[in-house]
Amino acid sequence: MTTTKRSRRILMALPDRRVRGGPPSHLYLLRDSLRDCGVDVRGFVYGGRTHSESMLYKLGHRLLDLMRLPLQIVGYRPDIVHLNSAFDRNGLLRDVFFAPLCKLLGQRVVIKFHGSDEALALDRRFPWRWMTKLLLSCCDTICLLSTEERGYFERAHPGRRYRVVRNALDFSRYAGAHGFRERHGVPSDRPLLLFIARFIEPKGIFDVIRALPEIRERHDVVAAFVGDGPVRAEAEALCREFKVSEHVVFTGYIAEDETIGAYRESDILVFPTYHSEGMPMVLFHSMASKLPIITTRMRAAADWMEDGRHCLFVPPRDVPALVAAVKRLLEDSELRESMGGAGRELVSQFDRSAVARDFCSLYEEMLSPARGSVSEEARMARSSADAETAAR
Length: 392
What we know:
Layout: E1 9-14, H1 22-36, E2 40-45, H2 55-76, E3 80-87, H3 89-104, E4 108-116, H4 118-122, H5 128-137, E5 141-144, H6 147-156, E6 162-164, H7 180-183, E7 192-196, H8 205-216, E8 222-226, H9 232-241, E9 248-252, H10 260-265, E10 268-271, H11 281-288, E11 293-295, H12 299-304, E12 312-313, H13 319-330, H14 333-346, H15 352-367, H16 376-391
Parallel strand pairs: 1-2, 1-3, 3-4, 4-5, 5-6, 7-8, 7-10, 8-9, 10-11, 11-12
């Protein structure tokens, strides 16, 4: 008599699709890719329901989520609960209830942090230190998006099981014409600089605006600012102050699935971020679109990208360096072309199927009866692999 091995059951906590930003896009892609690999994945929506919520609305929904989770676990009987979050104060205040609840119900838990606050990870004050220790102790595996993040978590909270992982890309999206320039009145013969992000100061939006007057002394560029956020009015006022308003386009928020045209029809991504995100997906969408990149050497960018090959790195908050990098790329068509090709080759490692297979392996490792604690040999092997990744 033969028995059929049942599919692994994963209860995956997902953001609401209405929430702006990258995580809803690539997390639902991961869910679907895992299903393609034969994993039985059930989504559980938790966290914010819209981009802007009142405190009363937010509190009510988090309480409802906390009550719904046990029903999902009892009814579905998953092998693993996979939480997706960000390690910041808001995320910690939520997850410090969800992860322990999963453990009380006998679940193995993996949490994937889409960005993390280093100061919070190192904070030794009560109650933050206590809540962080409680959250991490309830997670069998903690997934991070860069070796930098893993390093400070290991220093502050040793003895936990940390894993550096990747976000997934769907390469079928990066093809065809999209009409971005036509819709926003950008002539085809003018170089187009792209800034795309939530409009907050740490993303570097003000540095891009401050760089434009000097760039325009030699190059008739247009800058497209794609997105929205709390500093948009301030950014538009700064454009007027620097007398570049007629050479910039503010598109407002564009849904993640509709941004591909911006990447494909721009000439350079200018993204001098110093925000605490783990893997800025704008960089990886740009490489998939063969778009040359100027950015800062932070987090996953430092792990994966090589200066002069996949991008030009500039120091954060350094407008003269940003100006010089933009001019260099505008004046070197061969570098732009080679950078686009190298970037596309690099991100082939982020194909949705490859990332899904990695998570399948991680789940099987967590469910192995002999897994126990992480051996020193295994830890050193992963450290060596991550070092090789960083060297690439």
